[in-house]
Amino acid sequence: LELESALHKAIERDELVLHYQPKIDVRTARMVGAEALMRWRRGNQLVPPGEFIPLAEETGLIVPLSEWALREAARQAKVWQLNFGFSESIAVNLPNRLFERSDLVEHIHQFVSQWGVPHRAIQLEITETGLMKDLQSVIPSLHRLNEVGVEISIDDFGTGYSSLAYLTTLPISEVKIDRSFVRDLGITPQSSAVVTAIIALARSLGLQVIAEGVETLRQMEVLRRLDCSLMQGFLFSKPLPPDELERWLAQTV
Length: 253
Ligand code: G
Ligand code: G
Ligand code: MN
Ligand code: NA
Known about the structure:
Domain EAL: 1-253
Helix content: 40-55%
Number of helices: 12
Bound molecules: guanosine-5'-monophosphate, manganese (II) ion, sodium ion
Protein name: Histidine kinase
Number of strands: 9
Order of helices and strands: HEEEHHEHHEHHEHEHHEHEH
Keywords: Kinase, Phosphoprotein, Transferase
CATH topology: TIM Barrel
Distance between the termini: 47 Å
Radius of gyration: 18 Å
Organism: Roseateles chitinivorans
GO molecular function, one term: kinase activity
CATH class: Alpha Beta
Number of domains: 1
């Protein structure tokens, strides 16, 4: 309960921060976008999302928290646009209950207008499991977001048993191969079979495909051989505070 009221105040007290992990195109070794990951600066501690997102979801605080993240990502995109000519998108993780809200598109419109960035400055990640669980209530948002130019990426892909038939009807632009398959690449034949299948599926649907959780050169090489050149992971960079992302930002122009 104490944590809950502290989290409640965290937004107004300006205790939340976004860290950013670059998405890399290994063909050029350049950043092609970044994923925003929330942290809570509590006293001199930096609390990772695993320790407060579940509570936020239970208590409903996830709604103002997510809106804060969207607004902050739009602001950051503008700052990087001005300082570095940044024109890629920042991916924000949203739980399905946000996609179920009919005012999601209006909120995003408000934030990007406020900061004067295009809608495509914001990309949204929804987990495959979340998507499939509430498919019917999430679909209207996906279409409306797609219409205004906000791209949707399916996070943790390969873990959620989604129906191929459904996927082809959804206005999504990217799938992120789940870290668990990437981890076992070059170790178990099953993992490379799954990754090969995901890449083939994504290609045939005209989707962009990115591998997350890339930690070793070996994994990177296997992925390249499978014709997947977009990657994210500790091999390239952990999630960084905004000022430390500058090394990558300076390369995007
Ligand atoms: O950064 P870290 O590895 O601790 O993130 C753990 C999990 O928290 C990840 O699954 C990530 O998607 C999720 N997460 C990080 N930031 C946010 C956020 O802003 N909103 C939501 N809903 N989840 C987030
Ligand atoms: O669920 P989601 O994909 O949003 O999770 C993002 C989380 O994954 C972040 O907390 C981030 O710190 C973590 N992460 C990013 N790169 C790597 C990596 O290479 N290895 C591992 N184990 N975790 C990573
Ligand atoms: Mn994610
Ligand atoms: Na993920």
